[in-house]
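ugh finaly. both done.
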Amino acid sequence: MSQTTTWPAPAKLNLLLRIVGRRADGYHLLQTVFQFIDLCDELTFSVREDGRVHRLSELAGVAAGNDLVVRAAHLLQQETGCRLGADIDVTKRIPMGGGLGGGSSDAATTLVALNHLWRLGLDHERLAELGLQLGADVPIFVRGRAAWAEGVGEAFTDIEPEMPVYLVLAPPVHVDTGKVFQDPELTRNSDRITIRDFLAGEHGNDCLAVVRKRYPAIAQVFDWLDEKASARMTGTGACLFAACADRSAAETLLAARPAGVEGFVVQGLNRSPLLDALHRARAD
């Protein structure tokens, strides 16, 4: 069976992040909003008859056995007893460790694509449940629609926020998410808000103050961006973003960004391009 296809894995932004409590097991209770952007990794799958899963591309610092893409493929095999395998080539465009969800998105694309290519017939709900075993953000990428999320990030409500052009900046810093959530100064008791509050303009991020203190380089880039637009941080960072009036305004800011900072002009999306890729594949 020689079938080779390429699928997108989009990045996401957290348009809001509030910490409203903590469970007995230590997990934080959140309110957040996920929106996709058109910055995508690309995954190419070639189906194998021998059941082996091979990652063809190298990923700095990530052994193949620990890669979420490989783990996602093996999880599908274990769940279904499928005897097919795959060669998987990942073209990385999403910065690693920046809060844009690239690893989780790659895993979700693997689940969705191989479910189709291996003809397993699992529905999106089951794929999302499997994705949760790989990471808290994987289900949102499987679902593929912008969403308000609560709980530990697993209870979703579809929403339709505005879809502006964003400037995304990636300071050359790796944020340790675990240490941010363990920081004693982190706000953990924010009042709950509603979707209406968010749509009316509530866009705060409870992790920002801690991240600014722990990572001065992020604070500097945030302040630079905030002077020119309304700066926000996605997740626990390090990536920062701002909605812009149009692509031209975003390109102007991108050209003036601080030295050593990677940047992207992207379009906000309320529907993931992964869903469109799946639709096309089913039509073929």
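ok and the 2nd:
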Amino acid sequence: MINIIMAAIAPGIALLSFFYLKKKYDHGPIMMVIRVFLFGVLLVFPTMVLQYTLKEGLELTPIAQSFFIAAMLEEFLKWFVLFFIAIPNVEMEERYDGIIYSTAVSLGFATLENMMYLWFYGVQEALMRALLPVSSHALFGVIMGYYIGKAMFAEQRMKKKWLLYSLFIPIFLHGIYNYLLVIGSGRWLWLMIPFMLTLWWYGLNKVRKAAHDQHASSTYSPF
């Protein structure tokens, strides 16, 4: 039991710490980061209920399951928590703050999901789970947070554009990830490896860009 819990939470805590400490100066209120992480944990339960209901009530193709039942539902709920719970309760000082809070909610979700998976399928799956679903959730969160940060500091006419990016780019990438898993057979790993490498490159590129945009508080304006 202890082994499963530790194996399940370690990747999420490690990745959250990595992205949190990437911020060069003030890292933001740690208690708020923890709260957002816990909101991500709580999102797992309504998400599971909604996904189960939709799968039972609809006959869906693999693409529909990948992009709508999994990707759109999960990423929208994370985005909703950020937009209506996290951001209204903090004053963002830099664009990188969007990455911190978005990664927190994504990794909260991934951590409980990971724990449940390891409970049913065994701790021997921990490494693969850390490399694929937990890491991918973190990177979807990074990308979502990057564009939310851009929206928070953008001129009013540009806010809507960046907010749409913050929702639909993670949905698109998450949908591709899920579809590669659905394909199954022996070829999925050969497709997943280049996808994950590209996702890491794209996510870390957004981290570098956001980390260099410091002290933009003079242009900050909430939605």
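summary for the 2nd one i guess: Residues 2-219 form one domain.
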